[in-house]
Amino acid sequence: MSEPQVLLYDTTLRDGTQAEDVSLTLEDKLLIAEKLDGLGIHRIEGGWPGSNPKDMAFFTEARKLALKHAKVTAFGMTRRAGVTARRDLNLQSLLEAGTESVTIVGKTWDFHVHHALRVSLDENLRMIEESIAYLKKRVPEVMYDAEHFFDGYRENPEYALKTLDAAIAGGADWLVLCDTNGGTLPSDLGRVLDAIVPRAPGRIGIHCHNDAECAVANSVLAVEKGARQVQGTINGIGERCGNANLCSIIPNLKLKRGIDCVSDAQLKTLKEVSRFVAELANMTPSKHQPYVGESAFAHKGGMHVSAIRRHSRTYEHVPPDKVGNRQRVLVSDLSGQSNVLFKAEEFGLDLSDRKPEVRAIVDDLKELENEGYQFEGAEGSFELLVDRALNGKKHWFDLRGFRVIDEKREAGREPYSEATIRVVVNGEEEHTAAEGHPPVNALDTALPKALERFYPELQTVQLLDYKVRVLKARSGTSARVRVLIESGDGHNRWGTVGVSENIIEASWQALVDSLVYKLYVDARKKGRKRAARRNG
Question: Residue 464: phi, psi to the nearest 5?
């Protein structure tokens, strides 16, 4: 396998798990390792085998993975003071991990040597050199992570350089400069790289944390200055404010600097990998994350949408499909006619010659948003709004009334909820009831139950997400609320919205739109098939 122009080193499975609220099971780590390999990552740091049984188990199981691109790397620290490398349990655990690559972290800031290790400066240099030399005789690739390098170089450059010299003397293949506290600014980092890269050309790596919001910028700048290895994590997860985000670094290197660190096909999996890791880490994906976030290529202002309809480059710095993302147009009170026309095209509707209707839709949209409705996450409700403006309202069913009872029968037990509903379909009335917890769940169960006899396709609809937003908190318990729900039928997902001072009524509006949208979409598909048969 040819040596990559820039080696991508992922530490999601070790440094990433040090993030608050992040915990990965052994199975999670193995699944993520396979995803990282598919993305084209060159080194996957699996964990610290000397620290816990789960990490050691990972290295055992990782040998069974059929990785095509990546090598698994074990992480540890230099030998302890006063103990030989051969007798150091941490170094022995690294060897027991059985990887072709190991990473050793050592102290390069004299402040840490004095106050954290509490050893002499010379003893720390011996710990670095002897640990690396011992491992290098037994492992093909040994990397030295120079912890706190930029802080150490700023305060005592002579000693910081001595630690690198000790690593070189021990035979380290890579010298990775770590901005461990994450506070170095790009201009300062660049000056240090200018001084260090000539000492070991082609062997310098960079490991940045994000405490000053500069981790990605520092990592890319380091490559421009000659670093040939970049360490980071998927979605930037990690200690405190996180690590350098590989989901931004990889496209920056490939699309902005022309460095083929991954293939075009691998780059297209970037968003998928980002979402996969977030899901297993039980984290909500950041909508506003560059490149891979749902909002990364979303457009809301009417002027922006008008421009991207002519050419996407007007407001998009790269084509979204390059990173597996997509262009989105949002509808809101900031929307103009371009937003509506764009969304209509997504629905398969050509409204270019129906300007009065488009204007009416825009006016309705802005009025509804003024009342508290929000259609950015409720495109199902928006599509129904467009259809009603164009074709009038179709009465799939009429409500005769519903009642929701919420009863607490005993202290310490959850309340009991029951919803009773009466609907009319084509002149025929259906009266039914359902239990649930809480009240909205009872209503969500009762409504489809009443309609399934007439519309059996509704049996596939499930409520996937439910959100409530208080619109005017100062109004207290009489405040208007907005309910956003997401539904799905196993094939598609859609969002709908309702607004009212009564949370049950707001939920009812969103639930009705959800079921009506399913009926509307299925009817439209059937109509298109009939038209195709007539024309075919």
Answer: -100, -30
How far apart are alpha carbons 535 and 516 in whole angstroms? 28
Q: In what order do the strands lie in the sheet with 462-470?
A: 462-470, 481-488, 493-500
Helix 379-391 and helix 355-371: axis angle, to 10°? Answer: 140
Cα 249 to Cα 10, 133, 263, 287: the distances in Å are 11, 32, 14, 18
pTM of the model as a whole: 0.73
**Residue pointed to by tokens 């006619």:** 337
Place of tokens 């992040």: 22
Q: Is the pLDDT confidence value at 105 over 70?
A: yes
Which pair of structure tokens corresponds to residue 15? 């440094």
Cβ-Cβ contacts under 8 Å for 143 (sequence gap 6 or more): 73, 101, 102, 103, 104, 172, 173, 174, 176, 205, 229
Helix count and strand count (H, E) for the chain: 19, 16
Q: Do domains 7-280 and 397-454 have the same CATH topology?
A: no
Rounded to whole angstroms, the Cα distance separating 463 from 487 reads 4
Give the number of other Cβ atoms within 10 Å of residue 369's Cβ.
18
**DSSP letters along 59-99, please?**
HHHHTTS--SS-EEEEEEEPPPTTS-GGG-HHHHHHHHHT-
Fold of 372-395+462-536: Double Stranded RNA Binding Domain (3.30.160)
**Distance separating alpha carbons of residues 233 and 15, to the nearest angstrom:** 8
For residue 438, what are its two tokens? 């809480």
Question: d(Cα 183, Cα 224) in Å, to the nearest integer?
Answer: 20
pLDDT at 331: 65
DSSP code of residue 209: B
- Looking at 269-273, 275-279, 305-309, which range is the least confident one? 305-309
Report H helices in 181-286: 186-196, 215-224, 246-251, 257, 264-267, 270-280
pLDDT attached to residue 497: 93
Would you tell me how many other CB atoms lie within 10 Å of the CB of residue 424? 13
CATH 3.20.20.70 applies to domain 7-280: yes
Please give the Cα distance from 225 to 376 (Å, whole number): 42
Q: Which two tokens stand for residue 340?
A: 């509506």
| DSSP-assigned beta bridge partners for residue 207 | 178, 231
Q: For residues 522 and 387, give the distance between their C-alpha atoms in angstroms, rounded to a whole number.
A: 14
Angle between helices 89-97 and 53-62 (to 10 degrees): 30
The domain 397-454 is classified under which CATH number: 3.60.21, 3.40.720, 3.30.160, 1.10.260? 3.30.160
Q: Is residue 348 packed enough to be buried (19+ CB in 10 Å), middle (13-18) or exposed (0-12)?
A: exposed
User: Hey, where are the domains in the chain?
Assistant: 7-280, 298-371, 372-395+462-536, 397-454
Does the pLDDT at position 98 exceed 60? yes
Residue 437 reports pLDDT greater than 90:
no
Task: Read off φ and ψ for residue 148, nearest 5 degrees.
Answer: 55, 35
* Opening angle at CA 185, ends 125 and 320, nearest 5: 115
